[in-house]
Specification:
The protein is mostly helical. Helices cover 78% and strands 0% of the residues. It starts with 5 loop residues before the first helix and ends in a 9-residue tail after the last helix.
């Protein structure tokens, strides 16, 4: 693949930002479904900001500023919602974190398919091949959330799978801040690896 243009870096940053915002939004939605209403305002604020940004994205400078503002907001929210060890959380929190992460990963994969179709068809095919994996994980989380919301317990195998996915999130939680820093550089049109 040839040198990556600033526009492609910005597009990649937008895909990743969307994935992280999706992750936060779904996490809060799952908490609400399971009876935790603490972050209802955050969901409404995120929806309103995304709608506002959508209409202003035609002007790249204004759009980039709005996206960087969203990134700052997401960064502040991450400080509140970073995955913590199981002993310091309840099942609904862990399931919400897993559900958000899995939906966010699917959103990133779909965004990369779209980018690949614009810039590199082989890349699009690579991520298209991963679509069933992401869809299967979303389906599992959706089923477990539905069971818990209905007052039923998930099967032991499903719960063990969720707990394993959650443990992965806890192990990788420090990567979120470095991801957000890389996204900031990308949204400005720069390669994150070459800037300090």
């Amino acid at each position: 693949m040839s040198k990556i243009s600033p526009a492609m870096w910005q597009s990649n940053g937008l895909v990743l930002l969307n994935g992280y915002l999706q992750r936060l939004y779904v996490q809060d939605e799952i908490l609400q479904i399971l009876g935790d209403r603490r972050h209802r305002r955050r969901c409404a604020e995120l929806s309103a900001r995304l709608a506002s940004a959508d209409g202003q994205m035609k002007n790249l400078r204004a759009g980039t500023t709005l996206l960087l503002d969203l990134l700052d907001l997401a960064g502040a929210w991450w400080e509140e919602t970073l995955p913590r060890p199981r002993s310091k959380t309840h099942l609904a929190e862990r399931l919400a974190a897993v559900g958000g992460a899995i939906h966010g990963e699917r959103a990133i994969n779909e965004g990369l398919i779209h980018l690949g179709r614009q810039y590199d068809p082989a890349l699009a095919e690579e991520f298209l091949a991963q679509r069933p994996y992401h869809e299967q994980r979303v389906e599992i989380v959706t089923n477990v959330v539905g069971l818990l919301a209905g007052g039923a317990d998930p099967a032991a195998s499903e719960r063990q799978l969720m707990e394993g996915w959650y443990d992965d999130l806890v192990r990788n939680r420090q990567g979120i801040q470095s991801d957000l820093a890389a996204i900031r550089k990308m949204l400005r049109g720069y390669c994150p690896a070459n800037l300090h």
